[in-house]
Amino acid sequence: MRIAHISDIHADTSTAFQKRFRDLLQSIRTHRADHLVITGDLTDKALPDEYDTVIRILKEFDYSSGENLTVIPGNHDLYPAVYQSFTFRLSTLREEFREDPVRITKELYRVLRAYRKFTPQTYRDALRTFVAHFKWSFDDAMSFGTEKTGGFPYVKHLNDDFAIVCIESNYVSPHIKNFLPYALVKYAITKDMFSVTDSPICSNGWIDTGLFEQALSHPAVKNKQLIVLLHHYLYPEEHGLRYMSKDFERTMSLVNKDEFLRVVRESNTAMLLHGHWHITEAYSICNGTFTALNGAGSIREDNGKWNILDLSANKVNIDEVHMS
Ligand SMILES: [Fe+2]
Ligand SMILES: [Fe+2]
User: The domain containing residue 238 runs over which residues?
Assistant: First the structure.
């Protein structure tokens, strides 16, 4: 069985996006994948037109059932009030701030006001919207969650040996809520968005490890090798710092990563797939015990790489595909 992994397509309605997404799906079709996994940030601002665009193109390529498509949400799908208020590019925020501090300060003020509108209920509504849009892809999945968690985590059986575990890693973190006043005071003093605290832009992650453990202990899951999907990355600290500063890393990371990895270590996990940091690469975690695969660079024009996983009875092989 062959699984294609992509992530962070950040759909918009432009013709440029539609062309890039079709080219990517054409490349996946050419490499004869049986199943496509997309690990979050399917939309950029969770707008209805963005959902319509991504679903229409997926259906053009016959991804219209849970048999060949598995998706999980990312922070951009679940915090529309925050991301709809951005007009700057997050990736160049520091440079833009230096060039035009007045404009960026105004923008940030608007973002922080958008955050004030955020409540756990708005998060849950956005999660329900995401699941409703892709309901057909969850039809054959076993749910281990509740209505509050949008049914996450879900488990899908791929074959006699392998199952996919779909985790929601964007849950409202108690940590985020507790530290928001501190984040705002720190920002007011230092004018540094990337303060040593939690993220006021909802880009940190948090996983309900109790629900994850429940899914793992189910008899139908216990004896399978698991492909675990989450949106947030699992880089060991020194690896993450190759790409971003320590403070920036703290606004993007999985708050309870160590707790999550403790559960992973006890499980039958074969591989972890994620997105969020926009590059495509495989790397080792837990001192080489597991391989994690970041698929988030797949749609970018300057990258054009995606990965295909070949599942045999005891092993998962990864092949990196370079689009021409
Ligand atoms: Fe993303
Ligand atoms: Fe993300």
Answer: 2-322
C-alpha 219 to ligand 1 mean position (Å): 34
Q: What is the domain count for the chain? A: 1
CA of 217 to the centre of ligand 1 (A): 31
Q: How far, in Å, is the centroid of ligand 2 from the Cα of 41?
A: 6
296 Cα–ligand 2 center, Å: 9
What pLDDT score was predicted for residue 195?
44
Query: Angle formed by the axes of helices 209-217 and 257-265, to 10°?
Result: 10
Closest to 142 (Cα-Cα) out of 209, 217, 207: 217
For position 218, which CATH number holds? 3.60.21.10
Could you tell me the distance, in angstroms and rounded to a whole number, from the CA of residue 19 to the centre of ligand 1? 19
CA of 312 to the centre of ligand 1 (A): 30
Q: How would residue 81 be classed by pLDDT, with cut points 50, 70 and 90?
A: confident
pTM: 0.89
Q: List the shell of residues around ion ligand 1, using CB closer than 5 Å.
A: 8, 41
Q: What is the pLDDT of residues 19-68, one digit of tens each?
A: 999 999 999 999 999 999 999 999 999 999 999 999 999 999 999 999 99
pLDDT in tens, 181-216: 665 676 677 665 444 445 656 788 889 999 999 999
Q: What sign does the dihedral 73-74-75-76 (CA atoms) show?
A: negative
Query: How far, in Å, is the centroid of ligand 1 from the Cα of 181?
Result: 26
Ligand nearest to the CA of 205: 2
Whole-angstrom distance, CA of residue 51 vs CA of residue 135 = 13
